[in-house]
Every structure is written in C-alpha cells, then in structure tokens.
Amino acid sequence: MRLRKHTPFVPVAVATTLLATGCFASTSGPVDGEQRLRVVMMLPPRSGLSPLSDDAFKLSRWSTAETLVTLDANGDPRPALAEKWRWSDERTWTFTLRSGVTFHDGTPLTAKDVVRSLTRAAGAAPKPRILDGVELAVAGKGDTVSVTTAVADPLLPQRLSSPQLSILAARAYRGKTVDPVGAGTGAFVLKKVNGTSSATLDRNEDYWGGRPKAPGIDVRFVPDGTARAAALRSGEADIVEAVPVSQASLLKEDQITEVPMPRTNTLYLNTRRGVFRDPAMRAAARAAVDAEPLVKGVYEGRADVAEGLLGPAIPWAKQRPERAKRTPAGDPKGRRITIGTFTDRAELPEVAAALQQQLRTAGFRVKLEIREYANIESDALAGKFDAFVLSRATVLDSGDPAAYLYSDFAGDGSFNISQLADPAVDKALEKASSTPTGAARRKAVLEAEAAVLNTDAAVPMLHERVIQGDAANVVNSAKDPRERLLVTADTHLR
C-alpha cells in the first residue's frame, strides 16, 4: 500500500494563523547582547502547568522545576535537590538535601518544603502516574527527608525523579490548585503563563547550579506541526520540539537531530466492551496490522518496526522470552469498530487512516474519530472507543518500563485505555514492580510485557524517533529521548 506523502507547501490557513496569533514573536529583546531563547512547544498546557499533571514535563524541559533525584543516560538515579540517599530499612529511604538551594521567591529549600510537595502529590486525585500502586508517607527532620512505602520499593529513588514530583515553594500550594509561577528552584524562573498560548521565563541569577548562560526563554505553544517547522525555517524560532517526519526533509540537515526514543506507536484494543471484548477479534486485528507500510510511508523511514512494546531505545528489551501460543484470529464478518486518535502528533491521523484500510481488508467496518488530545483523552480513558491509536512513552517518569506497563495494563492502572483486567497480567506486573533493580528486574519486566502481548490488548506497531529542530546558532540544547530536558543552564545562542 502506498501512503500519501505530505506536501511541502505551507497552507494559507496555517500562515494566516501564525500572523493572527503572533506565535513566534519574541516578548523581549537582547539582554546585554545576550539573546533570549525562542522555544516552540507542541502541546499547550492542559492543567495550568500543574506539576501534578503531564504539564510537569514542560516545567522540567524549561529547567524551572526540579526534583530530588535525576536520571543518567542509563536510567540510574543521580543527585539533584538531594545530594545523597540510602535505604534506611526495608520500607524507608532517607534523602539528604542539598545545601544552599533557594526557591525563585527567595525562600530556602527545607525538609518541610519537600514533605509538603511529596505529600500533596501522594494525595492527589488522580495520583501522578509514577505513584500508581504506591502508598507513601513523608517525614522531614533537619536536612533529611524520609520516605516510607507500604511495601519495599527498590525503585523509589527513580520514582522521585519524575517531573510530577517536583519540589515547589509554599506559595505554589495556596488553595486547591498548584501554581508553579515563581515557585521552582531551577535555572529559569517562570514569570508568566498566558493560558494555552505562551509562557515567559527569566534567568535565575541565584541558581545553585551556576549562572545560566541564556537570559531567558520565550515559549509558544503550537499544536500544528507544519507551523512549528515553518517557524524554524523562517528564523522565527530557535528551538522546536517534535518536528513531524513530513517536515524533517524540508529543513537543513544541521537543523535537525534524530534520536531513537522509548516511545511506541500502539493500537490499544478495548477488552471490556464492544467487538474487542472477544479475544478472537483482538487476534484478528493484530493479524491485520502491518507496520512496515506505516514506517516507510507515514514516517518516511524515520521509525523502527516494533517487535514488542519496548523498543531499541531499551537495549536489553531484545532478550525477550518466548511468548505463549497466541489466540487464533476470528472472522470479523463486517463488525463495526471505531478507532480514536488525536491531531497533536501529526503522524497519528495518517496512521489511523492506514489502519482503517488494513482492518477493512481484514473484514471490519471501521470509523475514525480524530480530535485534539485535550478533547479526546477523557473519552479514551473511559473506554468509549473500540480501539485507540496512541504514541506512548514506555519508560515514563522513572526511567523504568515497569511503571509504564503498570499504568497502562494493570487492572487499577491510571492510563488503562485497553480497559484490561487480567489476573495473569496483574501478577506479572506485581512481580516486575517489586523485583530489585538489575538483571532480575529486567527479566521480570520482559515477562510482564509478554503477558500483556498474549492478551492482544495492545498491538505495538512502531517505535518513534524524536526529531528536534535547532537553529544553527543554538548551543547545548538537550536532545533527551525521555523528553524531560530541552533548555538547560548551558543552553544559549552564539
């Protein structure tokens, strides 16, 4: 099947939108000869930049909110706001705070602040996904904070690296919402948020990690991928995240960076109601999906065909165990299904259209429902679609795939689009979550992946590569496959 290629022409409607919104005009000029960074983001805030939502990743990518722990390239924990930590007893970890850290409002970082932030996150509804299945209590004394879990949790330091567990000043917690403006500890101070259109950050002159090299960041939110790429081509943006594959070939080679990332494009099948409640129909859908044309056509070769839920960004995923015998595919006999997806990732509507044709060929009658992500997420989580196409990060916040697998496929997982409730899967996920880090945990994770795939609740199609756009004069922007970092204290324009 030959899929339609994107045209390089920028539609008049897109150009008009840019002019009407002033999307890429910087809010400030040079500061003592230094240029502010103009950054274009894909998804606008959905929860007022609350760190208890996915908006937390924006705060992390702008280096404004920080956590106790960070992760290195291998996913191992490294010091951030905590200088060191130890496993004090079977269920308790004790963290020693870094000295000399102040919040953006001038108040010093104390154990009381850490207790407040982590306790608020642990009691949130819904919880930050990294705390799925985790109960914890936090106590502070002097320069130390103790975190006690209901059961032994060898992954706790990695969990505390999640941007959703950022530590903010007391001022952020006035009322029921969490407001991060002026409340972080990072290299840049969040000064202003203009709804879903823009944000402004200034350099934190008192940053504990040293004076940031850029005077500030001017952020614009532009869901349209063609418009984001056009901003880089025209010189109206310095850094652009998530350049669509259709636009990559239109940019200069030195303007793009392509990195395999732990993100899988997956077809989730509703196992609780509708056509795909029947395992034979799920097997029929799995058998009908051919990822090769999607990689070659929609992604123009800038992706990898999936062998499982975990991809090439996780090297040890190749050591998969043999799967159990799969359920034989049934005959769809013209059964009607609705596939949902969203427009925010430019490739997904095309993927859904290609799947529509493949599933029709297999005998299904297929309807597509495509909206912006903010307007479709709640329906997807409520199980209102027979199937859903999603681009999903597979190491999530902890750098460990067990958290993603639990969130998406456990019976009580917070992001269970497949509505899966399978005892064998839950047992495998519990084992993976409780096994100490190292080879044994990796083996348990792969066994849990196999248990999920045996249900055909999810059909992994391809593993994406992140494509980031940088102007030629950008220095030291982060190319982070986990999508946690973008602008750091070392990022600037030459």
UniProtKB/TrEMBL annotation:
Keywords: Signal
CDD domains listed in its UniProt record: PBP2_NikA_DppA_OppA_like_3
Domain of life according to the entry: Bacteria
Domain Solute-binding protein family: 77-413
Entry's transmembrane regions: none
SUPFAM superfamilies: Periplasmic binding protein-like II (SSF53850)
Signal sequence coordinates: 1-25
Record's protein name: ABC transporter substrate-binding protein
Biological source species: Streptomyces durbertensis
